[in-house]
Amino acid sequence: MAHAVRFYETGGPDVLTWEKATVGDPGPGEVRIRHSAVGLNFADTYFRSGLYPVRLPDGIGVEAAGVVEAVGEGVTQVAEGDRVTYTGSPLGAYSTERVMPASHLIKLPDGIGCETAAAMTMRGLTSAYLLRRIHPLKAGDTVLLHAAAGGVGLIVSQWAKLLGIRVIGTVSSEEKAELARAHGCEHVIHYRREGVAERVRELTDGAGVPVVFDSVGKDTFAGSLASLKRRGLLVCFGTASGPVPPINAMQLAVNGSLFVTRPALADYIADPAERDALAGELFGHVASGRIKIEINQRYSLENAAQAHRDLEAGRTTGSSVFTL
After folding, report:
1. Tens digits of per-residue pLDDT, 278-312?
2. Taking a C-beta distance cutoff of 8 angstroms, is the pair 296, 316 a contact?
3. Is the CB of residue 82 less than 8 Å from the CB of residue 109?
4. Does residue 128 fall inside a structural domain?
5. Residue 40 belongs to domain with CATH number
6. How large is the angle between the packed helices 42-49 and 304-312, nearest 10 degrees?
7. Which residues contact 63 (CB under 8 A, 6 or more apart)?
8. Which of 110, 161, 199, 237 has its CA 20 to 30 A from that of 71?
9. Strand 319-323 vs strand 295-299: parallel, antiparallel, or unpaired?
10. DSSP secondary structure code for residue 242 in this structure
11. 200 contacts 189 by C-beta, under 8 angstroms
């Protein structure tokens, strides 16, 4: 019998329920996939809390990896027995198996295991578009990266170092600082005891950085803006502390003609060719060992509520997965 995590109302982690599920045969353009591992992402908490509205009841989770068990009419990009990964809608990855559109699947190369894929598909593709698509960064540039010891942070730090880009990372503890340094951060700022913008100015001889990657949101927004050099770009790609406050356009002008963007991964992988190109680059780095994927927390799907509590409390580092 298949099982899935669902929620019938928005709220805290306790709204998540573990229940039996009926999984039918795939229709045209669909596949049935049996999951081997499921990714835990901060975005999952946005759907659960209601920050990202969905029609209820619904499943939860946007990332998993596993094996194709059946294909529907018209499916040609994957076949039964293929190992695949995916990230994105529709919700429902927190499940042992499911039926879903085949167009969302990415075939896994032999060198990438399903658990590794579930830990990195969303984080890795996010890192890929941040570094390879959103701004023309070049060797010698310096960037500020918030949550440097998180899942995206550890991948971005390693990838940036491969590209010759210096990373100044922010962390909340010495344990996380050591982890960030070990994965390529050249400088680490303890944001609970140091002024982020002031320290960034010190490290850049007063100039500031051309790009800030900010997945925290409300609590870091002002400091992120203050860390930018003239005509710098603030990339707000997450809201772990709450939504980004309203932006005053004149504030951007008087602080150096700054730019702000709020990108979504979906818009950088909507084109299958671009998605496959980014995935290919990511998989190549991981399979070769140039980028290591740190899975530091493992949970059972039955314990999804506890996984969400740990994630929201900042008790996790690197990537987290549900094992099946």
Report:
1. 999 999 999 999 999 999 999 999 999 999 999 99
2. yes
3. no
4. no
5. 3.90.180.10
6. 110
7. 38, 39, 41, 85, 86, 87, 93, 118, 121, 122
8. 110
9. parallel
10. B
11. yes
